[in-house]
Write a structure and sequence with these properties.
This is Helicase HerA central domain-containing protein. The chain is α/β, with parallel strands linked by helices and about 475 residues long. The protein contains 20 helices and 14 strands.
């Protein structure tokens, strides 16, 4: 499946970002203050908000406004303890809720400790919760500094370790790092080096231009082009965007940050200024402002995370027949994707839900256990569960990953087709090892669900003793048709 995010315009027209490729290859954004980094991140977040879970580490509180247009939960980190922050991160992974962790109001060292706690909890989530998610870290040089600064070594090591885990080891856990920094020279090299996609904005220092040019594959003499970029312009390179450096201008966004850039405004008249400056000191002070509302408790925020999916705007749902057709189509497309055979079930489940949404089904109403069964049936070429109810009942005693090859054998046996070759069983099992296929067949025989017979010519037939079905005999290897042709 391919989901393209419109990022803006380039020399050849619209420039898109391949979201699925980004989840595997990560992204680094660099640019001086005012170059448009936050605008770029907001464009990416808005374009992918309905397609993938998003987790934003926000030092300045600029991205909390995403919750007004989307289902993002805003967490004001200053109001919670480290234990509560870690628990919220666990819930975020469990429920696939999109969140913005605002670190505004915390000192630098406290920001680093909080980000380290939150990222580490995301990274340490149980395997069943390894759903794909974009983890966006703004001002990444704060959390992964290249050198020691004014903070304690303990805080720096914890924050740098969490960022290194995110960028180096997060992919297998479904965490796709998107980091933005003002200066590459201040960002730890082992963190920056793990990104394969780059968007380089305006910068002026020679050391930053040289590093940016190296990452973009440009010669040093071409680095001057980075200094000439306008606000909102970036040089892009990477498998998710373009194979050659390309200048793009980031498009508009729908939401706005709470902070705004300074703009010029008329000065007051000189006479007014003088009267204001010379006003009596004893003048009554302005009335006190009402205190801000107290922040929600950790329990209330966790409750909001638990119900984040329910907060999405309701969309018209197709009828039952059309919904079932969309589910079947999404499963068929998923099985037809050659890369799906080597992916985990939780990753495929998120992919399946995304495919359903892109086909017009906002909620597939398919739980993870149901998806495991439907995926196994799709890999075996089965559609109607009622027709295969007895077979599914027998297969319920087998582990989830064994169900697909068992159903493949059952379908061939019922229809009197040749026994599936080892290669087909390996694809259904999600492996490329023929040895594992042989051990799989031995295991199913030990469970009493199949009986394998091999004749004197080496041809294999498999029976289902509970149903009295038997496949036709065939060569067990993947090259059976060629050997049959030679005979």
């Amino acid at each position: 499946m391919t989901a393209k995010i419109d990022m803006g315009t380039g020399d050849g027209g619209t420039v898109t970002l391949d979201l699925e490729e980004l989840l595997s290859t990560r992204l680094l954004v660099q640019g001086n203050s005012g170059s448009g980094k936050s605008h770029l991140l907001r464009r990416l977040l808005e374009g992918s908000a309905e397609l993938v879970q998003q987790i934003v580490i926000d030092p300045e509180g600029d991205f909390v406004s995403l919750g007004n247009a989307f289902s993002h939960v805003a967490l004001e980190a200053a109001s919670y303890s480290p234990a509560e922050i870690a628990r919220m991160a666990e819930r975020v992974r469990e429920h696939r809720a999109s969140v913005v962790l605002s670190l505004e109001g915390l000192e630098l060292e406290a920001q680093m400790r909080c980000a380290a706690t939150f990222l580490s909890a995301l990274f340490d989530a149980p395997r069943d919760h390894w759903f794909p998610a974009l983890v966006v870290v703004d001002e990444a040089q704060v959390f992964a500094p290249a050198a020691a600064g004014e903070v304690s070594d303990e805080a720096r090591r914890a924050s740098l370790g969490a960022m290194t885990n995110l960028m180096c080891r997060g992919r297998k856990r479904g965490l796709a790092g998107v980091i933005a920094t003002q200066r590459l020279a201040k960002l730890a090299k082992n963190v920056a080096a793990e990104a394969s996609n780059f968007l380089m904005g305006r910068t002026f220092l020679d050391i930053d231009m040289a590093r940016a040019a190296d990452l973009l594959g440009m010669e040093r003499r071409q680095a001057e082009a980075i200094r000439d970029l306008e606000r909102g312009q970036f040089l892009a390179l990477g498998p998710a965007i373009t194979k050659r450096p390309l200048k793009i201008r980031i498009g508009p966004v729908r939401t706005a940050a709470r902070s705004v850039s300074p703009t010029l405004m008329p000065l007051p008249a000189a006479s007014d200024v003088e009267s204001l400056v010379r006003a009596p000191i004893e003048a009554a002070p302005p009335p006190p402002q009402p205190p801000p509302p107290p922040p929600p408790s950790a329990a209330e925020v966790i409750g909001r995370i638990d119900t984040a999916q329910a907060a999405l705007p309701a969309a018209p749902q197709p009828d039952a027949h059309e919904s079932a057709s969309i589910v079947r189509r999404a499963l068929a497309d998923l099985v037809a994707d050659a890369a799906s055979a080597q992916q985990t079930v939780t990753t495929l489940y998120q992919d399946f839900l995304t495919r359903c949404r892109m086909l017009g089904l906002a909620s597939a109403a398919v739980t993870l256990p149901d998806f495991r069964r439907k995926l196994a049936m799709a890999r075996a070429g089965m559609e109607d569960e009622a027709e295969w109810g007895e077979v599914l009942g027998i297969g319920a005693a087998l582990p989830d990953d064994v169900l697909a090859p068992f159903l493949l054998i059952a379908r061939a046996a019922r229809d009197g087709e040749e026994c599936p070759p080892d290669e087909a069983l390996a694809r259904a099992y999600g492996t490329s090892s023929m040895g594992r296929v042989r051990r799989l067949l031995s295991y199913m025989e030990e469970q009493g669900v199949i009986v394998t017979r091999i004749d004197l010519s080496g041809r294999r037939a498999i029976s289902l003793p509970h149903l009295g079905w038997t496949t036709a005999a065939s060569e067990p290897g993947a090259d059976a048709p060629r050997r049959a042709a030679r005979r």
